[in-house]
């Protein structure tokens, strides 16, 4: 007999197709964990979803999670599903909430998608002066660092509408390609559109992912013991350790949502973790980079702090402060 059998568990998330796929995924995992458990999706379109302009002018990426966290605090939902990448790293979790689980990380790579009918199969085939669409300052800086000839143009909106704009089915974008997270396309069943995966290792032709890329975070009220215990069973310790290293790096850098910061931690089969961090100028012309590896017994947050200290020593503060928060 499940202690959740008397009422459905309300799963909160955003209303975009990607977010709905995420809440459905979590609901399926929970049903598998606790036969008899019923869930109900509560989808909310946030202020940031409705805003067509620059996110930084509204208050930043944190708005994607804020409205849902408030529902959780008010008791209108029992858990919240967030992309960890969208959870601000420069402020603590809202009072009374806990990060009860991080799910196993999906493929964290950024990918290139080209318009329907384009013959391009890799970035190297893009002609000089080609236009790529992304609103991520991190992607923009890394693309320009490798190819200063590229023109990078902003694009916002749900992943599906970005693809429609790219294909010309919707007005508002003329670009030779779009750079996105593979994880988002996976959740939408759209990986068939991918023509190239960017490497995460910090080579010149790659794109080091964002802190928390590909990770789904499950939050609940800290005093809700049954839900905290239930969600804890979905926690992936390896991903949690990687996320902890990455987020310690981001916290130490005090980056705001408009900072071109990349941070990615990987784990070897023997448990050894490597954290790589980079901070860029907006045009990618200047950057600092650092990496460190530690054995499985080392505190992942300390790894983040160490890579952060090295980046600051190399001048990361000046790069971060040269960019306006919005
Ligand atoms: N910035 C929005 C966002 N937040 C998380 C993902 C994708 C999934 C993930 O990386 O967890 C995306 C879309 C994208 O960046 O293309």
Automatic annotation (TrEMBL):
Q: Which InterPro entries does the protein's record reference? A: HemC, Porphobilin_deaminase_cofac_BS, Porphobilin_deaminase_N, Porphobilinogen_deaminase_C, Porphobilinogen_deaminase_C_sf
Q: Which NCBIfam families match?
A: hemC (TIGR00212)
Q: What is its EC number?
A: 2.5.1.61
Q: Which family does it belong to?
A: Belongs to the HMBS family.
Keyword Transit peptide (UniProt): no
The keyword Transferase is assigned to this record: yes
Q: Which gene encodes it?
A: hemC2
One Pfam family this sequence matches: Porphobil_deam
In its UniProt entry, what is this protein called? Answer: Hydroxymethylbilane synthase
Name the source organism: Streptomyces cacaoi
**What is the reaction catalyzed?**
4 porphobilinogen + H2O = hydroxymethylbilane + 4 NH4(+)
Q: Where is the Porphobilinogen deaminase C-terminal domain?
A: 242-312
What is the role of the protein in this entry? Tetrapolymerization of the monopyrrole PBG into the hydroxymethylbilane pre-uroporphyrinogen in several discrete steps.
**What are the BP-aspect GO terms?**
heme biosynthetic process
Cofactor(s) the record lists = dipyrromethane
Q: Keywords for this entry?
A: Porphyrin biosynthesis, Transferase
The molecular function terms of the Gene Ontology recorded here are: hydroxymethylbilane synthase activity
Q: Which residues form the Porphobilinogen deaminase N-terminal domain?
A: 9-225
Gene Ontology CC terms: cytoplasm
